[in-house]
Design brief:
The chain has 212 residues and is of the alpha+beta class. It has one domain: Pnp Oxidase, Chain A. It has five helices and nine strands, in the order H-E-E-E-E-H-E-E-H-H-H-E-E-E. Helix 4 packs across helix 5. The longest helix is centred in the C-terminal third of the chain and has 14 residues. The model has no long low-confidence stretch (mean pLDDT 95).
Length: 212
């Protein structure tokens, strides 16, 4: 199928060097809050890219749960494919796409596990059924049927029918510490605005304009 005729002009705004805040986290916070105040579903959804030992990239969508100057945090099964690949190569990429605002953010960085205390604090804030589901799914493994999965879920609901659901030892968070962050604003005629934050000598960040 030829879909080369699909075309959309980006006309919603621009991005100039003078618009940028001093750090990429501050700039991310500004853009994220603007995305959050729109009708964009799940503005915290991001594409996480990892690389296998033989060099094969893989991607999946995960949810950003919190961020600060220390990095960007998400949670997952620590025996999943993404977690295994992070263990072998902690260099990852996070990518946000907010097409309604004609914006993208790409974060290159290094992922490492958060503390058990941090994982437990977030785990206890999840809905109870989501906590139980974390115990049920051996993420990325092959299963014979959804029926078997739901049977296991019910078994776990019965097991944890009283009291708090404990944090699984195989579940937790990862913090991505950025080494560079790119902000992309769509512009007319494909002459987009792109700025890349990179660490500055002596501390802080420099933001450089990239050709579209």
């Amino acid at each position: 199928m030829d879909i080369s005729h699909f075309r959309h002009e980006y006309l919603k705004g621009g991005l100039e060097h003078g618009d940028l805040l001093p750090s990429p986290v501050e700039q991310f916070n500004l853009w994220f809050n603007q995305a959050k105040d729109t009708d964009i579903p799940d503005p915290n959804a991001m594409i996480l890219s990892t690389v296998s030992p033989d060099g094969q990239p893989s991607q999946r969508t995960v949810l950003l749960k919190y961020y600060d100057d220390g990095g960007f945090v998400f949670f997952t099964n620590k025996e999943s494919r993404k977690a295994r690949e992070i263990k072998g190569n902690p260099r990852v990429n996070l990518h946000f796409v907010w097409l309604e605002l004609e914006r993208q953010i790409s974060i290159a960085g290094t992922a490492s596990p958060v503390t058990t205390t941090e994982s437990a604090r977030y785990f206890m804030s999840r809905p109870r059924d989501s906590q139980i589901a974390a115990w049920v799914s051996n993420q990325s493994s092959i299963i014979s049927s959804r029926k078997l999965l739901m049977q296991k879920f019910q078994e776990m609901k019965n097991k944890f029918s009283r009291g708090d659901v404990p944090l699984p030892s195989f579940w937790g968070g990862y913090r991505v510490v950025p080494s560079s962050v790119e902000f992309w604003q769509g512009r007319e005629n494909r002459l987009h605005d792109r700025f890349l934050y990179v660490p500055a000598d002596g501390g802080g960040w420099n933001a450089e304009r990239l050709a579209p």
